[in-house]
Automatic annotation (TrEMBL):
<protein>
    <recommendedName>
        <fullName>alpha-L-rhamnosidase</fullName>
        <ecNumber>3.2.1.40</ecNumber>
    </recommendedName>
</protein>
<feature type="domain" description="Alpha-L-rhamnosidase concanavalin-like">
    <location>
        <begin position="347"/>
        <end position="446"/>
    </location>
</feature>
<dbReference type="InterPro" id="IPR016007">
    <property type="entry name" value="Alpha_rhamnosid"/>
</dbReference>
<dbReference type="InterPro" id="IPR013783">
    <property type="entry name" value="Ig-like_fold"/>
</dbReference>
<feature type="domain" description="Alpha-L-rhamnosidase C-terminal">
    <location>
        <begin position="797"/>
        <end position="870"/>
    </location>
</feature>
<dbReference type="InterPro" id="IPR008902">
    <property type="entry name" value="Rhamnosid_concanavalin"/>
</dbReference>
<dbReference type="GO" id="GO:0030596">
    <property type="term" value="F:alpha-L-rhamnosidase activity"/>
</dbReference>
<dbReference type="InterPro" id="IPR035396">
    <property type="entry name" value="Bac_rhamnosid6H"/>
</dbReference>
<dbReference type="Pfam" id="PF05592">
    <property type="entry name" value="Bac_rhamnosid"/>
</dbReference>
<dbReference type="InterPro" id="IPR035398">
    <property type="entry name" value="Bac_rhamnosid_C"/>
</dbReference>
<keyword id="KW-0378">Hydrolase</keyword>
<dbReference type="Pfam" id="PF17390">
    <property type="entry name" value="Bac_rhamnosid_C"/>
</dbReference>
<feature type="domain" description="Bacterial alpha-L-rhamnosidase N-terminal">
    <location>
        <begin position="167"/>
        <end position="337"/>
    </location>
</feature>
<dbReference type="Pfam" id="PF17389">
    <property type="entry name" value="Bac_rhamnosid6H"/>
</dbReference>
<dbReference type="InterPro" id="IPR012341">
    <property type="entry name" value="6hp_glycosidase-like_sf"/>
</dbReference>
<dbReference type="InterPro" id="IPR013737">
    <property type="entry name" value="Bac_rhamnosid_N"/>
</dbReference>
<dbReference type="Pfam" id="PF08531">
    <property type="entry name" value="Bac_rhamnosid_N"/>
</dbReference>
Amino acid sequence: MILSPRCDLKIHEQPLSVTDLRCEQLTNPVGIDAVQPRLSWQLKSDQRNVVQTAYKIWVASSKELLDAGQPDIWNSGRVASDQSVLVSYKGKPLRSDMRCFWKVQVFSNKKDSAWSNVNEWSMGLLNAGDWKAKWIGYDKASPWDSVTQWSRLSARYFRKTFSTENKVQHAVLHIVGLGLYELYLNGKKVGDQVLAPAPTDYRKSVMYNSFDVSAYLNSGRNAIGVVLGNGRFFTMRQNYKPKKINTFGFPKLLLQLEITYANGSREWIVSDNSWKFTADGPIRTNNEYDGEEYDATKEFPGWATALFDDSKWREPELVKAPDGEIKAQMTLSMKVMDSIRPKNISRLNDSVYILDLGQNFAGWLRMKVKGPRGQRIQLRFAESLKPDGTLYTANLRDARVTDVYTLKGGGEEQWQPSFVYHGFRYVEITGYPGIPSVDDFTGLLISDQMAITGKLETSNATLNQVLKNAWWGIASNYKGMPVDCPQRNERQPWLGDRTQGALGESFLFNNATLYAKWLDDIQDAQTQEGAIPDVAPAFWNYYSDNVTWPAAYILVADMLYQQYGDRQSVVKHYPSMKKWMEYMQRRYMKEDLVTKDKYGDWCVPPESLELIRSKDPLRNTNGVLLATAYYYHLLNVMKRFAMLAGKPEDISVYDRLANRVKTAFNKAFLKNEDHYDNNTVTANLLPLYFGLVPEDRMAVVKEQLMQKLKQDNMHISTGVIGTQWLLRGLTKYGYPDAAFALATNTTYPSWGYMVQQGATTIWELWNGNTASPQMNSQNHVMLLGDLITWSFEDLAGIQSAPESVALKKIRMQPVFIKGLNNVEASYQSPYGIIKSSWKRTGNELEWSIEIPPNTTAAVTIPSGRITESGKPLKGAVDVKNNTTRLELGSGRYFLKAILAH
């Protein structure tokens, strides 16, 4: 256990231990392709001021060897280091399908730990020649299918029987199932993943998943079964806008099962034309935008078992491999992450009911039903209702969002789709036999498998609900890539939405592997000339050559480094980032200003509630100002990246250009020596936050920023770009009360206004309840800006100190805002749990802090009579700011301050 907040309580001291062993930020990865994996662990101790001083790692080819003290793959020896996050493997070269068992011992300034429990990782197929399998499929539509703007393509079913004559010691299966797959062995579904593998630009890369299937195999006859859905590979809108929408081909399969027997022999079961195939199964169509249709009368029970008669099935075709390189998927697949009990069900007419889940989310509906064979039930999905109680679907564009289930009869049936997801709160149910009840349905949230890392609650109910809405919106839009919306015919991974959003999301979810994968998607999408698209993977051909959207490539890499200590992502992508920076300079920089912008400060609150975008030039910020300010900021980030990447010679190049850009920027946009351009909040905020404002002009520009907010009655007037820096910027420059007012407003335009209108997620538009349905998604994340980051870093005081990464040293300096009585927050950092809970009553402030082992914290508290667990405490006093700074080691602390005023 860890120390009680009050250290005057007597407790039993527990020894130092090591937990949460991870390889490549995954707990037990199977089939990784990192030839130098990175290992992490966490320390646990109830003592204060615990710091790791050294570690010892053992890696062996079997658990038995490790237990016997024979690390035949790597014995690091005692390494003097406090590093416990992303420690690079330095043992013997790793081979394909190799199993690695490892453990770690930690030495500290207090006590040394015992050896940790044993953990394991296994290697994937590291070389193209390791694949013995062949691509199989069926490169045409069946007679009942259609390939059109609204394609209908039935799922493809593949099976293979084989025998195991000897005792199986270990078995690993590698699969590439494009577009999506479900995998079965001897009738049992392998794994809990859904909608796998993760989507990519299949012309550049395709992902394989790996499974330890030792426990699935029988002695004697066995059977593999695979169902292929369409996913993003067989693109939903075939032959429709071919210049915009990329298509890749018909579904196809590559599968390889390697069995190691107890006698040391090995056998491979691979996909080839000896398999059996049919497309005439129960899944009649599956289209991410339009829905899935399942005819239970066409089921073939036991089809994935060895006893099934497949004599009427045909041989699959040997098909051309996709162009992309086969890579191990290094992020966990999607799965059912939560279940939702419906709120109520209402009857529209004799055959139509409306189900209300009570929460907007992305996933699907599981249904129980009993009825006659051939009965057809239709499910249509929407985020909201019309005034007459029917579904509001105008904002879904041409997405048909309809599932259909045909009963087989004979008893209770249960069904849920396999290869689609919907963004919805409401479901229109047609054709259900009898009278349905809420007990017949369950909503299932489909999202990437991520640990929930953070929780934050305050005394302000509006802010709490906004943060809850943000959680549901973010979870809904994690789909193997970060997408913009889960409901209409878009669902695209827009870069601009996550430029700063990824940082806020990291406080709620451990999104490290997802965003590392997304950087690869962006790199895959870069053109030979250096351009980066607005959408990656590049399912849409959108190369607008603006700065603010592609900036995500650099700023998300910065997030991975700052939040998780992931230096490798920076080093890996540095050449491509540099290439893009040079491309934009070469093509669009004139007189040291970047002259190209596409989207402006996207989605500022418009002057009319019916408009999607403002037409008022006084509300909109100059695109050249946006592009140039962002480019300047990115130059400064690239200076840090150059040092991390071992390219110090680049720093002076960036520095000289940044100085020229700063001069040109102020010459072009600093007006009357006190504001920028047309004086929007964004126009003044970006120069302040990015360090473009001359030192002697800082005070007047800050004042102009504040005056503009007052003119807007302390409401949001920024779009996607400005809002990314808004609350942190106001707090940084001395206006935390203004930031709090913006965060908690309940009138238009504000996040609280969405709450007041009944929203359970974040909207695409500030006026999403009144704007044209052409663009008013009710489950979006781009308008969150820096709200979540500000809540954790500034309200709770949980952030990395400027000289640190991954919260190795924590900066705890909350803004104790008037009108906010308490904040309670926790964050699972790479080093362990960080907690910050404060409460203010009159002039008395109480603050409980938890700092994980192997970290320290710089804690700033308002000056006054300060005690820690009842004992007087002194620190470094900052008279100017009336604060006291404390340097604390790991442990739990209970601070109390009696403030002078």
